[in-house]
Amino acid sequence: MLVTSFLEKSLIFQNLMKSAEPLHIDIQGIEYRGTIESFSENNLIVHMSSPFIGDMDGTVKVNFKFHNNYHYFETTGQQIEGSRLSLLVPERINKNILRRYERVYTLGKVFLKLKIMIQSDKSSFRSSGLLDERVIYREAKSPRPAVDKILTGIRHLVSEFAQIIQIKVFKPDQKFTLEEQLLRETKKIFLIYDSYADSIKERRFSENGVMTVRRAYEYMIERGDPRKAAEGKLLDLLQLKRNRKIFSECFIPLMLEGEAVGYIRLINDVAYHRSIKPSMALRTLEYGRILVEALVKYDYFRLDSGEAHQIPVVNLSAGGLLFRLEDPRIRGFIILHTVLQMSIRCPGRIIQARGVVYRIDKEASEYGLKFQEINEEDINYIDNMVKNRIPL
């Protein structure tokens, strides 16, 4: 559906301005957030919540929610001063109404390939008093980040409380240590505060995202490990740390779409004799999120599947689709509200669309998706297939 009249567009922009509902603005592949300051018949003045990175090429994509419907348009923009942007009011705004659609069964006839879209907001580092935090924020937001600069910044920041920093990304079919197993399964920070004082009897910390030796013991019991075996593994682990003269050690997960894909490891030895505190570990977790975003944009992680349109579409409608995905590696990255960019191969047409996952049936390996962005012509094509005007 299209919004073309100035009266309706004016009503939308006026409500967005009053409610301070954010606009999501894509500039050269980087997504920014902004709010409308004022508007006229020809222009929108938008205040951006973060500074621009690089130069503008004039063309931007804008999307927002209004009355529970998804709206989007393309236009031209010009930076005015600082973080303010002037956007030309578009001739039309695309409107994806959230309603029930009639579906057509397409299994074996329609296929797709997809790419997982990484979107994250690191605004806490944008105006940080620390230079390194501001640098790694700017780098992570660039289309092709300088990962070495981000790593250098992280190393400098954690050097205040950790002697050694190591970064590891998990490989397929690798063997995992006990610490790595616990981190992958719980998706929590695993912290040995003091290898000489930690035990399976003392809880020590209350932070939900931090797992101590005691919590590790409780988790291993919950997953079905025999008490003696769990106790023996953890006591052996503490003894191993002492033998290696490790005083305090921390494993911080690198999280990607709900899964731990690696970790940052912090180590202090006996001579340094300084414990890594939970607050320090949680701060490092934030640095890890920025690092993962940069690695994805750098194409270190390949988060797409269905090359040559191999993923079967179970059913299709003008509002969304249901697809079946068997690839276990990609399945682990798709959680509720994950945004996917898709290429859908129908019998007589290839449709480009963007949507969000709203339902997951793990047993059937099926994922329900609602369209966010799709051309009006493609909606009409799907509607004609549903009504048997176009044969499958």
State the helix count: 10
Which CATH class of the largest domain applies here?
A: Alpha Beta
CATH architecture title of the largest domain: 2-Layer Sandwich
Beta-strand content bin = 25-35%
The number of domains:
3
Residue runs with pLDDT of under 50 for 5 or more positions: none
N-end to C-end Cα span? 25 Å
Bulk shape: globular
The CATH fourth-level homologous superfamily of the largest domain: GAF domain
Please provide the count of β strands.
Answer: 21
Mean pLDDT: 88
Radius of gyration: 25 Å
Strand order of the largest sheet: 2-3-4-7-6-5
> Which fold name corresponds to the CATH topology of the largest domain?
Beta-Lactamase
Helix content: 25-40%
Protein structure class: alpha+beta
Question: What composes the largest sheet?
Answer: 6 strands, antiparallel, barrel
Describe this structure in words.
Helices cover 28% and strands 35% of the residues. The protein has 392 residues and is an alpha+beta fold. Strands 2-3-4-7-6-5 form a 6-stranded antiparallel β-barrel. A hairpin with a 2-residue loop joins strand 5 (59-66) and strand 6 (69-79). The model has no long low-confidence stretch (mean pLDDT 88).
Brief description of this entry?
This protein is α+β, with helices and mostly antiparallel strands. The protein has 10 helices and 21 strands.
